[in-house]
Amino acid sequence: MDKIIYLDNAATTKTAPQVVEAMLPYFSNYYGNASSIYRLGAESKKAVAKSREVIAGSLNADSSEIYFTAGGSESDNWAIIAAAEAYETKGKHIITSRIEHHAVLHTCQYLEKKGYEITYIDVNEEGIIDLEGLKKAVRPDTILISIMFANNEIGTIQPVKEIGEIAKENGILFHTDAVQAYGHVPIDVEALHIDMLSASGHKLNGPKGIGFLYIRKGVKIRSFIHGGAQERSRRAGTENVPGIVGLGAAAERAFESMEQRSQKESKLRDYLISRLEKEIPYCRLNGDRERRLSNNVNFVFRFIEGESMLIMLDGKGICASSGSACTSGSLDPSHVLLAIGLPHEIAHGSLRLTVSEENTLEEMDYVVDSIKEIVDRLRQMSPLYEDFIKKS
Fold this sequence. Notes:
Number of helices: 14
Distance between the termini: 37 Å
Helix content: 40-55%
Structural class: alpha/beta
Number of strands: 12
Shape: globular
Largest sheet: 7 strands, mixed
Strand order of the largest sheet: 2-8-7-6-5-3-4
Order of helices and strands: EHHHEHEHEHEHEEEHHEEHEHHEHH
Strand content: 5-15%
């Protein structure tokens, strides 16, 4: 195949044509500052308000509860740090999980240096959080629970409603990093008892550099960026109007097509999983088979290095990853795979494939055939595989 087969949609997605079209006028025609009072600025302000309403509607939230940010990492940092500071008189204990995105984990580590105590909840071998462990971890001084909605590496969807109920029953704030889930699964912040939620535009065919943080009314949270009075004085800085418009258009598109898109992606996902499991020995599917994002496939292949496989896949025009794009270049195995119980030597042979509705079954056949060839080739060069075969 001459064309590129893009299977790294968990890292980023292609901006949809209708999203680009919606954004273009706000670069050159309606370029006014949304905080100004003249007519040109009013057009920008109106566009920002429309996107805020679209996003709020997609979550069953109020538009006044949506705050635009530069992306998921900023939203995570804001939710955790600002909430920690605002509620420190109640306590300095925060609960999270061992498989969070580094935007959460590194933020928690930052707070540990500031005197906060963090409890990292274990997950089972499928990546599902231990709810009993979560209940036991709750203390009188617990101020925040931050558990991701769906894992960015293995695709496992957490029991968010149950987590929200535990938080609500104990009077604790509940934040969820929904960067991988928003636009891909239905989310109702009221039904799920979510107090804060982070999302990012470029994970749902929107532009990069834009995201939002949902903050429930009544949540006491401090400003994260200080300066002007934008975002109701909680997040200073001139509004990224084209980005906000693009995020709103991407959200509208994503929720309108969600059911149809999910069905197609699930079919491709299951086809990939079935062929890989049947045709490549000594491999393992990571993540829960049922509670899983519709586009996520994550495998480990024993006796090989994931990085070598990615380079060889790229040579065949296939874009994939071994885990989070934010840890690309790290020599350490995925903290997520270690948390679900994989030993270091096996976790190194990981491969994440995340499909989109634009992919085809023909492409999946080419991908599986390529992976089979590459895995066989790498294993033939592996002394570990040679020893294993001799002993078996």
